[in-house]
Design goal:
Helix 5 links the parallel strand 3 and strand 4. It contains seven helices and eleven strands. It folds into two domains: about 40 residues; about 270 residues, Purple Acid Phosphatase, chain A, domain 2 (4-Layer Sandwich).
């Protein structure tokens, strides 16, 4: 290429490069201008909003005084419920048989029951911080004794069925007397149900279950001869024992009529099915039952735990390990069942 043409090409390249730089600068300036414009418009909007807030605050009168809140006082009316069941006072559980997980005897049973009586009242006093409680329901739902329903129990139980019945009756009177003396209740209602363990027959009866129950006899004798102040017994021969609590029909039963054959859902499915069927005849607002040695509280039903705790039989049927406990619940007239907690016995 000749020198003149080369010079001209260089000049053209410089011109093109200058043009590109110029266009880039123009584009950058436009972008920067747009960015500043957006920021400006955003600041204007924020300023307008701040002015609006300031004008609103100026219209609100503030006295400069802060109201001093006072503590709430208990309001409304409610009834407390203690659920007692599955004490199995005479049953023998040895540490060696349980790999050290549990042991049980009449002496241990009485110690756990006395803990439970006192802690139950403590739980009720907690609830009294929220509402007035003058009435107590102590639902005694059976299996206070183990009995001789299996041949091995004749060998292992510390006491015979009659001796165990006397022992359980004495403990029951002790607990009711304590609550009558120390609880500050105007009345204590004791609905009673028999369990499946304390029977006099090898196989459980249906229509004559109460008539063949050591616990049924115990309830009737205690009603006739104890005379504990404020205590009113409600003993029924039927499977269900009904009580209207603060306007809510409540159904008490031991629980053995609800058959549990195992399954992932535990007892919840058979319980729901059974309660649904019973409700077709007479609906219940709430159910309290026992038998399964499990503490479970749902909206409409409560299953009570046990005082005996884990046992060889429970291991054999693959039951979940659970600490010995009973139940305290509170039913309010306005809101229904508002408070349900376990009361530990150990």
């Amino acid at each position: 290429m000749k020198k003149g043409k080369l010079t001209e090409a260089v000049k053209n390249a410089d011109t093109i490069s200058s043009q590109v730089k110029y266009e880039r600068n123009i584009a950058s300036a436009k972008a920067s201008a747009t960015q500043w414009k957006n920021k400006y418009e955003h600041v204007i909007e924020e300023l307008a909003l701040a002015n609006a807030r300031a004008e609103f605050v100026e219209t609100v009168e503030f006295s400069g005084k802060v109201q001093a809140l006072s503590k709430l006082k208990p309001s409304g009316e409610a009834t407390a419920i203690c659920v007692w069941s599955d004490w199995h006072v005479e049953e023998r559980i040895e540490k060696a048989v349980m790999n050290g997980a549990n042991e049980y005897s009449p002496e241990i049973a009485l110690k756990r029951l006395r803990n439970m009586f006192r802690r139950s009242l403590m739980m009720i006093d907690v609830a009294r911080g929220l509402t007035k409680i003058d009435t107590l329901v102590v639902a005694v739902l059976g299996d206070l004794i183990t009995g001789y329903i299996h041949p091995e129990l004749e060998e292992s139980n510390y006491l015979s069925p009659t001796e165990a019945t006397e022992f359980a009756g004495d403990a029951l009177v002790e607990g009711l007397t304590f609550l009558s003396r120390e609880g500050g209740f105007k009345e204590i209602i004791v609905p009673c149900c028999v369990g499946n363990h304390g029977r006099t027959t090898m196989k459980q009866r249906v229509s004559t279950s109460f008539a063949n129950s050591f616990e049924g006899l115990m309830y009737k004798l205690l009603e006739k001869h104890t005379g504990i102040p404020k205590v009113k017994w409600k003993i029924e021969k039927s499977y269900h024992n009904w009580l209207n609590i603060q306007g809510h029909d409540t159904r008490f039963h031991h629980g053995e009529a609800m058959k549990f054959g195992g399954g992932v859902g535990g007892i919840t499915i058979p319980v729901k099915k059974a309660l649904h069927q019973w409700n077709q005849n007479k609906p219940a607002a709430y159910d309290f039952f026992a038998h399964f040695h499990q503490s479970i509280n749902m909206n409409r039903w409560t299953c009570n735990g046990s005082v005996i705790g884990m046992s060889p039989y429970a291991i054999q049927i693959k039951a979940e390990s659970e600490e010995p406990s009973q139940t305290v619940s509170v039913i309010s007239r306005a809101r229904g069942k508002v408070f349900t907690e376990r009361v530990f016995c150990d």
